[in-house]
């Protein structure tokens, strides 16, 4: 049960990028069918990238042993720091709902940090199916939530969720390094 809580918290932290970006994107008029499709695509990327990271992480563990554990913690810290820095450097920009290759690129960008987390989880031997179900499902749900909330709430919530996600990743990175 502890692993599910930990992985759910990580999935929530990673999905905050998608949620934050979806809040901004949701300011443009988007049909419900398109909202559903965007969530599925982003959720899929949050499955594919951690899977690739976990495969690489298992290889790294078999090859490099304990050094890989330190690298995994550092990667989480770097990913979290990047999210926090992005929060402070964010400029006001016009957002529209991406389509085609722009949607794929957008999904890759908001899911990229899940690769490094997958790498770390692969190093520590986490349960692959559980990780992928949680990461993909929570990312899709947060994307849908962000797009739908943007219709109602406005711009004030978006950037803060990204900073929160970065803080969670930093905390997990320090936990891996020092505990």
UniProtKB/TrEMBL annotation:
**Localization annotation:** Cell membrane
Tell me, in one coarse class, where this protein mainly resides.
Answer: membrane
Superkingdom in the source lineage:
Bacteria
What keywords appear on the UniProt entry? Cell membrane, Ion transport, Manganese, Membrane, Transmembrane, Transmembrane helix, Transport
The annotated topology with respect to the bilayer is: Multi-pass membrane protein
Q: Does the keyword Cell membrane apply?
A: yes
* Pfam families per UniProt: Mntp
Do you know which InterPro entries this protein is assigned to? Answer: Mntp/YtaF (IPR003810), Put_MntP (IPR022929)
Residue ranges of the TM segments: 36-55, 67-88, 100-121, 128-150, 156-178
Belongs to which family? Answer: Belongs to the MntP (TC 9.B.29) family.
> What does the UniProt function comment say about this protein?
Probably functions as a manganese efflux pump.
Q: What is this protein called?
A: Putative manganese efflux pump MntP
Organism, as annotated: Bacillus badius
């Amino acid at each position: 049960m502890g692993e599910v809580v930990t992985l759910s918290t990580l999935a929530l932290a990673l999905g905050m990028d998608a949620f934050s970006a979806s809040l901004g994107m949701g300011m443009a008029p988007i049909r419900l069918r398109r909202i559903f499709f965007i969530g599925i695509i982003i959720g899929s990327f949050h499955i594919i990238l951690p899977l690739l990271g976990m495969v690489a992480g298992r290889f790294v563990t078999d090859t490099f042993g304990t050094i890989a554990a330190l690298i995994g913690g550092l990667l989480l810290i770097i990913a979290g720091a990047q999210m926090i820095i992005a929060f402070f450097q964010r400029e006001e920009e016009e957002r529209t709902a991406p389509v085609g290759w722009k949607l794929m690129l957008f999904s890759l960008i908001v899911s990229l940090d899940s690769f490094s987390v997958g790498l770390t989880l692969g190093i520590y031997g986490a349960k692959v199916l559980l990780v992928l179900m949680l990461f993909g499902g929570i990312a899709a749900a947060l994307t849908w939530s962000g797009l739908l909330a943007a219709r109602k709430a406005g711009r004030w919530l978006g950037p803060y969720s990204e900073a929160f996600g970065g803080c969670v990743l930093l905390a997990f990175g320090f936990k891996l390094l020092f505990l």
